[in-house]
Amino acid sequence: MALDQLLSRLKMDHLQASLDSLCEHASKQDLNYREFLEQALAQEWGGRHQKGLESRLKQARLPWIKTLEQFDFSFQPSIDHKIVRDLAGLGFVERGENVVLLGPPGVGKTHLAVALAVKAAEAGHRVLFMTLDRLVSTLVRARQENRLDRQLQQLSYPKVLVLDEMGYLPMTREEASLFFRLINRRYERASTIVTSNKSFMDWGEIFGDQVIATAILDRLLHHSTTLNIKGESYRLKDKRRAGLVTTPTTKEEDTSHDAGSEPMKEH
């Protein structure tokens, strides 16, 4: 059987596409059989990994691709670099723990959440990004169409679920109840990353019911890491440098103060 046929039947498409260049390289470098085989298999694995990563990132529905290397930590000195490095190791994903990012608008919460999601996708984990508004709309529609259990099950599959913009819009009691069911379904099974501009004390207002808010926090914060980011908006820094903005708005200051500035680890 010809080599091309063997590679085709073994579904080694990436190796097949680059075989000629690999053989030429092996000849020039005078590689032995073992070294050539190692490079050939590495080429196939690398191609498969890249294809899988691209597929996972597409399914994740991230608003954009951001990495931790692109994050300007010097602009947000309140962030503990050690905690972020620990999170980047993805131990929290393996343990099914959660991450909560608190702070006023524009301080980089979504950037950090997306960067951790990208890390998880690179490690082979299934990831999904949703704004809270979109999540709630999805759950409400599923309930109206009598397929809520199936929808909750689908949202339980991603190893990392990023829920962005918690607190920008209040929920009805029914919506809060649906959100609780999702958090309860994922509890200690998969990781959820939440970004919010509200402190935990204000979550009763978000969910419209203090009892439900307490139940959600109980499950979300058990085995979790909370990062409170106290700083000004990235979106304002260029204007501030140009002298167009002189001081943070009162709303940002109040929100930052409520959220606090110290990182917190829950067990």
TrEMBL record:
This is DNA replication protein DnaC. The keyword Transcription does not apply. Pfam families: IstB_IS21 (PF01695). Residues 240-267 are annotated as: Disordered. Belongs to the IS21/IS1162 putative ATP-binding protein family. Transmembrane segments: none annotated. GO terms for molecular function: ATP binding. One of its GO terms (biological process) is DNA replication. It comes from the Bacteria. InterPro entries: AAA+_ATPase, DNAC/IstB-like, IstB, IstB_ATP-bd, P-loop_NTPase. Keywords: ATP-binding, Nucleotide-binding. Residues 95-227 form the AAA+ ATPase domain. Residues 250-267 have a biased composition (Basic and acidic residues).
